[in-house]
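ingest -> validate -> predict -> emit
validate: passed (alphabet ok, no gaps, 290 aa)
predict: started
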Amino acid sequence: MSEIVAVTGVTGDVGGKTMDELRREGASVRAIVRRPEQVAALRAQGIDARRADLDDEDALTAALDGVDRFFLVTPVSPQQAAQGAAGVRAAQRAGVGRIVHLSGGDAAEHSPMPWASAAWRTDRLVRDSGLAWTILHPSSFMTNVTPSAPAIRRGWFPHTTGRGVIGWIDTEDIARSAARVLTSDGHDGTEPVLTGPDLLDARGVAAALAAGLGRPVRALHLPSRVYAGVLRRSGVPAWLAEGLRQQFGRVVRRGLDGVDVMSDDVLRITGTAPRSLTDWARAHRDDLLG
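emit:
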């Protein structure tokens, strides 16, 4: 395809994997990054890279000049809502044809998690932008299990979700879906819900990990404040630890804001079924077991 597809967040997980997937599909990709050394490194790989910060709407508008399709990925931070708004405005000013926003499966106006309410605000701006748009709503990332690796090595999966269930998804499947949406038609005005193949509670997660790793793993329920304290001691900032406590100890535990929804949208969009948590754990054995 000759159209230019711009992507933010390419130094992160989903953005980077989506950029790689787009390149494999032969798309003309423009990577938007914050630092000069990142620009230089990407250009050395033959990638059109432009420097712009999501906090700088003018610079972002310039970086989007000539872009046809734009994948807006905003990092989880206290500035996420403002950066999402800047991304939408920059796309409008630059005359981008289509915007695809990486939202969340739990995006909600009054969510106790700052990233979920920020995603909801950006979603609203995207819908009202006057541009062709698609909003992706992925479930919780399987990579979010990785910080629990020290406990998993000892045979435990710590959680605070009670009996709540999640349709855990591999970020590779999110990237494949995003790339297909960005390079094909028929997705305007849609909001695909991206999930893995199974709704799993904590015991299901532990069983999937055990099957993938070939060793026993048991679920260990922690009170939500204890769970947040464990996160804080591992270096997680206070605002993020509190958000995660609310996410797993309230939203997931109670099945709020659509976190327990299952969908076949990954298969429908890509033609390939999403990876199971067992298969993901098997593929990431070294990351989880060291």
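The mean pLDDT is 96.
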